[in-house]
Known about the structure:
Number of helices: 14
Radius of gyration: 40 Å
Structural class: mainly alpha
Number of strands: 0
Largest sheet: none
Distance between the termini: 103 Å
Amino acid sequence: MVRVEDKSESEPEEERAKKFPDLFDGSETDGPLLDFEFPREPEISVTAYNAIKKELQQCKNTITSLRLLRWNPEPPEKIIKSIIFGEPYSLETCKSLADKFSFLDMAIYYYDGNAITAILIFLKRTLKPSIFAKNLKTRPVGLNHFIRYLENLQDWKTLLNLYKELYRTEDAMMLQYRCISKLQDPKKKLQEIDKILSEYRNAPKASEILVPIEEERKLLARQMEIEEEDKESEKQGKNAVLRYHPRTASIQFKPLITTLYYCAFYHFRQVFVKPYR
């Protein structure tokens, strides 16, 4: 059996003390072993202390008033004045439908745009779309303000749903048409036009508006056919006019007069027998 000798026992006590000095014997060493100071609390002036105390008291008063408002809501006039003057207010304490629209009536009475907008956003968030549209219909000022608000936000989806809830068929159809008029993909635009035609074909007072939309649909379909055939002719070199006078732009999305000029220039005495798609 091998015995391991403990060298620390045979080592002189003075040498051991040099290697492992006692931290608590008060002896001086080369550097401080416990150089640590506990952080002290920051000292503030009396003025700063009074300001913090005053702010804390205001927060307590606000919390107390909010707790009381849970059971005793403030009158609409006071709420609207708070909105106008930029003071703190809360609409969440209002629960009934009549009380909610009383806020809107008061905002319309003061005719303040910020107050009307704040109330309308609150009503839209807390009411069903059908109930919101039904009650808003009897308040033209609030309705027109909300429509302008959605137009500025370019929230076309919400505006379209509002028109449908109000049974404003013409406005809904024109809004959809205005949204698809910016499409640059002819196939996608043709599909969207077909959706409008199928959705509003039997709608009252929509026949007169659908006529120019149908004409645009026919024109775009014809332009797509011409564009497709002319691209093929350019590759094969069949059309002599296209060879000597190359096209500078596509015929798609061009007005009717430009399309007639294009056809007269590149397809004189040619007949298109392919029917409309």
